[in-house]
Every structure is written in C-alpha cells, then in structure tokens.
Specification:
- The structure is a homodimer.
- By secondary structure, the first copy, chain A, is mainly α.
- Chain A has two domains: about 20-80, Winged helix-like DNA-binding domain superfamily/Winged helix DNA-binding domain (Arc Repressor Mutant, subunit A); about 85-140, no CATH class.
- Helix content of chain A is about 50%, strand content about 10%.
- The first copy, chain A, has five helices and three strands, in the order αβααββαα.
- Chain A has a three-stranded antiparallel beta sheet with strand order 1-3-2.
- In chain A, a hairpin with a 2-residue loop joins strand 2 (about 70-75) and strand 3 (about 75-80).
- In chain A, helix 2 (about 40-50) packs across helix 3 and helix 4 (about 85-100) crosses helix 5 (about 120-140).
- The longest helix of chain A has 20 residues, at about 120-140.
- Chain A starts with 20 loop residues before the first helix and ends in an 8-residue tail after the last helix.
- The structure holds a DNA duplex.
Chain lengths: ~150, ~150
Amino acid sequence: MSQYTATFILNSRTAMQQPTAPELEILKLLWQKQPLTARELHDELETVLGWGYSSTRKTLERMGEKGFVAVQAQGNKNSYRATLDKMPTLAGFAQDFAKRIFEIDGPLPVAMFADSKLVSAAEIADLEQLLQQLAAAQLTKPVDSGEP
Amino acid sequence: MSQYTATFILNSRTAMQQPTAPELEILKLLWQKQPLTARELHDELETVLGWGYSSTRKTLERMGEKGFVAVQAQGNKNSYRATLDKMPTLAGFAQDFAKRIFEIDGPLPVAMFADSKLVSAAEIADLEQLLQQLAAAQLTKPVDSGEP
DNA sequence: TTTTATTTGCGACAGATGTCGCAGGTGGTA
DNA sequence: TACCACCTGCGACATCTGTCGCAAATAAAA
C-alpha cells in the first residue's frame, strides 16, 4: 500500500485548500531538497518568478499559516520544510483537474504522467493508488450544499 | 484541420487569462445551450454553486468585461452567449495543467479525455490538434522575464 | 565593542474574486 | 392608468493574492 497519507481527502468541512501556483513552485523545490532557508528558496525562484526577496518570504509566511510548510528556527535563521506530501498533493491537483475541468469521474490513467519531469516510476505507482482512492471517495461524497 | 481558432496562443503581452472555476461552470452551460438569460443560467447554477441571483449576474457582468461572454439585449432582458470557444479553452486548461503542475512538456495523450462527459469523439480529435499546437508553441516561447 | 550585512516580523497596498443589496426601469395586468 | 413582478446597472465589502518596504534583532566582521 501507499506510504503516504491522503492529506486532501480528510477534512471535508475546512475544505483543505490547494496551494496556489507560486506556492506549488516553492513546494516543488522543497520536495527536491529539504529543508531550505528563505534565501535559498528565493535564489532559485527569482529566475522563474522574478520576485523580490520580500515576496518570497511573505509567501512562505502565508504557507506556514496554512500549514503547507513548517518553519524551523535554526540559530537565527529559519528553514522551511514541506508538510504537504508530494504525491498526495499532486494527486489532488490531478483529480481536481479531471473532475472540475473535464468532468471525468473515474481515476485518470497514470500513463499520462509518464513524461512528467517530476515523478519517478515508483512514484507513479503510488499516484495510481491515490488517484483511485480519490475517485472512489468522490463518488460517495454527498453534494456540497454550501451551508456555512 | 481544426475548425476553431486557438484563442489562447495569441496575445502574449496581455496574458489572456483563463476563466476561474465558477466562470468555467457558466461557460460549460453556455456551450451546451446558447444563448441563455441570467435567470436561466442562475437556476441551473444555484444547485451547484449555491449562489444568490446577484452573484450570478455579477459574475456574468465581469465575464462580459473580460470578453468571455457577449451580452445581447433582447427586449428588456439580456441573454448571454460564450465568446470563448469550447475546445481551445479546454485545451488551454489541459496544457496549463500539464506544464505547471506536472512539468510535462509534450502534448498530453488524448486518451485521458475519453471518459470526459464534456467532449465527444469528434471534439477529442480537435483537442488532439490543439494540444499539439500548444505544446509546440510552448517550446519556442521565450522565458517570461516578468518585465512590466 | 562598534559597525556592517542579513534576518525576521509585520504592516501596507492594489487587484481579482465571491457575494450581496438597493434603486431605477419596463412590461403586463387589474 | 396605477400597481406588481422581475430585470438591469452599479456600488459595496470581505478575502485572498501578489508584491513591497521598513524597523528591530542578530550574527559576523573590523
């Protein structure tokens, strides 16, 4: 079975939000190499996002509030580590995409992820599992009536 | 060849934005049956989004400003029609998803859309074309340096 | 220990989105 | 023609995001 916990499925009431585009960029870096300081993260992101250092830090700060990353004060500087697991997060995006954009109910065929620069063969196997779980969970989920 | 114009590719400076989640919901309805009045749209959306009538109209209004829909004053009531073409829009979402989330450069395999409740076999063929174009366009596109 | 280079926390601001409510028309009906 | 139901334009407000800048704290260097 999968070594990951399917972070997204739980928590129906709080509607666990997905990371935004820039947040995902940061998470990707962290999944590659962990932990990293704000400065390190920034230096990599700069080329891609063209941000000022402050923007990077603010984003990190907000990600902390949302529980996407954990801060570790190491001496005087903080370093960050992802608290969101890679594969469940990615699977969540995939499922949401399939469902919301294309109205595909069953799990997506993992074949489509073969060319991804992000996932290894081993991870693809996990992804398959996760996608299946998510698809199943979705079918049993009652229609959200949006009551506050 | 595809009967659609690839609305998204053009327009590099203005960065043609994609519709948001609720906006897409509205577009989907319009692609199914066109034109529709605000009230008609609302009655269908209500169950899914749990919105008030005003919210629906405001969203429609903003979609008009963005050029996603066109308004037609018919007597005293307005009806709306989508100005965004279905397949190019969907293809845009797919490509963006592949690229931004999974870092897949080539075009997505169309097989994955087979189970979509949204696209017919004929449309899948078009989708394939569009995805290929988008993937190609992406490769030649220079890195965005974010200069204002 | 005084200075200098970095950090960090936090406040700010503009723009996009979700979500309403109100006031002023218009058409049909009594 | 006076009234009622429904429509439209438009202003408002709370959030979330993207993006900074500043001042206080800390570590490293002189």
